[in-house]
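Private note to self, pasted from the team thread so I don't lose it. Backbone tokens:
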């Protein structure tokens, strides 16, 4: 009888699902039986590769046309909106669904990529198994966010949910933090105090950090976006006019991948916009471009570093993980943090980065060489397999 693993993911962005899928692919090659519990947004993609994919309710922040609606999201913890139940009710619904599938499947190991309801279920299940003196189910919590750097006014609202979340994290047998160790951590502003967790390991990025070389065009800019479909389209509308006008003035070109599974293509004298580019094509374009403009997701940040390309990071409004990553990229000298409200400064920022290209290149080369010594996927799989 083969070992069985149950995998769940958080419902914010695509990064959690991307990492979970990489882990599942790796374990599947070793003969491990894989089960997924996913919200509706990831079902079709997962079912292309895996047969045991179960639907559970989603759980995410509220968004508006500007990004994450932080105030409404925190109020929504307890108070339902016109179209959405409260976050507590959504949390309970997801917890109950995961409990049902967990009891039905009886996995040897549960892997949660950023999903807190799963950790609560594992904590409760472990308590029950200890009382019955049964063998305890093992749990690996894979993440790059433990304690976001909340704005001061929201710290009071966030304190109680954060307290419970960290308590559930401590119940995991291992926390694999998908980033570099302190000092080089890109997600440092989303880490909190790592000394609180005796089960925490910095496994490194899930990105292949071997240098991705290619024929470089210094006058080309690659624009990538992340998050929900609405946010991706909004970001495109936001940057299109500024990028077109600037590129015509400076004799540059820019390419954008929306990351949407749609057949969309638009081209003019200075830009190409694609609804979707596969990973192989994205690698070629990252290697070719002069710099990368993106929202600051952890995977995209490391992919730019792997190509030794400086980043201009424009985080989604109130997306705390992205804001923290943007600040960290600038502190490490790997790019520039440009808040969306200062988007009109983009031409000045690009020209300034051109003047400092050699400095960025040296820092990126040293950072990439250090990061190349880490393999987040293999390290995480190693811990998972130690529990099987």
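Design output:
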């Amino acid at each position: 009888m083969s070992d069985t693993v149950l995998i769940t993911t958080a419902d914010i962005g695509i990064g959690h699902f991307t990492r979970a899928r990489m882990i599942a692919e790796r374990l599947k090659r070793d003969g491990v039986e894989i089960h997924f519990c996913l919200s509706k947004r990831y079902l079709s993609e997962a079912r292309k590769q895996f047969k045991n994919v179960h639907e559970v309710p989603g759980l995410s922040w509220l968004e508006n046309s500007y990004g994450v609606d932080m105030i409404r999201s925190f109020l929504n913890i307890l108070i339902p909106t016109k179209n959405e139940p409260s976050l507590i009710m959504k949390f309970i619904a997801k917890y109950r669904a995961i409990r049902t599938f967990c009891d039905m499947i009886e996995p040897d190991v549960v892997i949660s990529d950023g999903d807190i309801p799963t950790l609560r279920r594992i904590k409760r299940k472990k308590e029950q198994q200890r009382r019955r003196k049964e063998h305890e189910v093992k749990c690996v919590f894979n993440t790059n966010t433990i304690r976001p750097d909340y704005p001061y006014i929201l710290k009071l609202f966030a304190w109680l949910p954060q307290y419970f979340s960290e308590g559930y994290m401590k119940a995991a047998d291992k926390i694999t933090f998908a980033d570099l160790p302190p000092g080089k951590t890109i997600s440092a502003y989303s880490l909190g105090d790592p000394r609180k967790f005796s089960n925490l390991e910095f496994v490194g990025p899930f990105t292949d950090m071997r240098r991705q070389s290619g024929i470089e065009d210094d006058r080309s800019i690659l624009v990538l976006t992340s998050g929900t479909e609405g946010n991706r389209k909004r970001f495109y509308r936001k940057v299109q006019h500024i990028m077109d006008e600037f590129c015509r003035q400076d004799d540059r070109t820019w390419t954008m991948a929306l990351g949407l599974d749609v057949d969309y293509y638009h081209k003019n004298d200075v830009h190409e916009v694609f609804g979707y580019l596969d990973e192989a094509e994205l690698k070629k374009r990252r290697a070719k471009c002069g710099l990368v403009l993106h929202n600051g997701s952890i995977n995209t940040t490391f992919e730019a570093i792997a190509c030794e390309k400086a980043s201009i990071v424009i985080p989604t409004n109130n997306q705390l993980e992205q804001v923290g990553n943007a600040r960290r990229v600038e502190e490490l000298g790997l790019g520039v943090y440009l808040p969306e409200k200062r988007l009109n400064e983009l031409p000045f920022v690009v020209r300034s980065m051109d003047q400092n290209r050699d400095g960025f290149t040296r820092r990126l080369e040293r950072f990439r060489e250090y990061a190349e010594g880490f393999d987040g996927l293999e390290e995480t799989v190693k811990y998972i397999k130690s529990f099987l």
